[in-house]
Amino acid sequence: MTDTIPLKGNWNYPTSIRFGAGRIAELPKACETAGIRSPLLVTDPGLAKLPMIAAALKSCKDAGLGVALFSDVRGNPVARNVEDGLKAFRAGKHDGVIAFGGGSALDCAKVIAFMAGQTRPMWDFEDIGDWWTRADPAGIKPVVAVPTTSGTGSETGRAGVITDETTHTKKIIFHPKMMPVVVIADPELTIGLPPHITAATGMDALAHCLEAYCAPFYHPYADGVAVEGTRLIAAWLPTAVKDGKNIEARSHMMAAAGMGSTAFQKGLGAIHSLSHPLGSVLDTHHGLTNAVVMPYVFAFNRPAIEEKMVRLGRYIGLKDATWNGVMDWVLDLRKQIGIPHTLKDLGMNDGHVAKFSEMALVDPCTGGNPVKIGVAELSRMYQAALAGAL
Hints:
It contains 13 helices and 9 strands. It is of the alpha/beta class.
């Protein structure tokens, strides 16, 4: 990247994105663009204590916005978090939401805004068939999204993942109007992320790009976004982990995260369906879990994706642009940034396999896997990831 091309821009892809260092200063203006005069700022408890949240609240208040804070959001958000957020939203008579934080805060915030004007229970809008048409579009409040990690890309997505505490299952709440109206993607907000979170969230972005690319559907737009997102991650994730203050690396990783979620409108697959049960039952970090299962899913899917992966290897500049070369790159990247090799490292054991395989089978991501899978195949991938067998 030359000095003559600043890492800054205004994009619509399709979300309106204000990208670049320092653009958090535009938060009040973004709320105005979204038609929000009294926002509820939704974040997580850790971020709520940091200066960036205090500064965001002050800038909104100084601009005359009736802003308030809600921060009761778990790392894997649960239905109670949404319910409590709705109470705060309605009690404060808010007219929109600022979703501020990592994927958990963004997902919870988007679902709060979605549910603000609905009369049916949240689970009636799970991403099953056309259930999204049950929603009253007029009851969906606008969202301004401010990501502080480079992983989930929830800022450019039309869904939120919420855990049903009664069944310990992750469910996807979907509606086209859940897409944020404006995104402020300011890489300076990611400077304070520790290396292990940078690594885990970066691998989440990679999982989104690679699964979207491999999904067995025709969507050349998504494929193009996915492979360029992969190239950026390959080039910049190790630097972002090693030198968290490198704003160039942080910028490219933030762009790649949004690209991943833009691409996965095409579909996801078994990486995600295997990861979701661990997150809902064992409360593992989603991006880290995706990173651990990634090579085992690729190995299983090889008959359907080998040609695509070879093309990808050439595009991202691997010297060995073969199946083995791409797999070695994934494994080397994981090792370089400190990703564990097996699911045992995340607390899973053989006793979980049967139940988790049943849960993964009904996960909405399973249908996007390039090789058709059932309980037996999911069990085989879990066992391989527990044993470290590739």
